[in-house]
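Recall the central idea of this unit: under ordinary conditions, the amino acid sequence of a chain determines the structure it adopts. In this exercise we apply that idea directly, starting from the sequence alone.
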Amino acid sequence: MGCQIGLTDGIVAYTGHGVQRTPAADAEAALALAPGSAGEALLAEVRRVVAASDTVEADWSEAVDGSLYPVFAERMLLLEPALDERALHALSWRWAYLQTF
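Accordingly, the structure predicted from this sequence is:
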């Protein structure tokens, strides 16, 4: 469980969710969460999960109440079942931005 909390924090820091106006790829923010090789391992895992999120496909015709978040979250959980709500929201925010712009 502690590892998953670290991953969530890493994803949120890396994407800048809740801090930045637009999604980022802030390796330094993720690295700052853990010292030395632990930070490098965290960053590698964050990048792996972010890359997996880039493979999610959804169309506006699938939106639920005008939102693609439920569709994204369901599909992302098929790829990474251990992700929590905070991680899913950060990844979805980044994904939606990249789909739009």
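Residues 2-100 form one domain.
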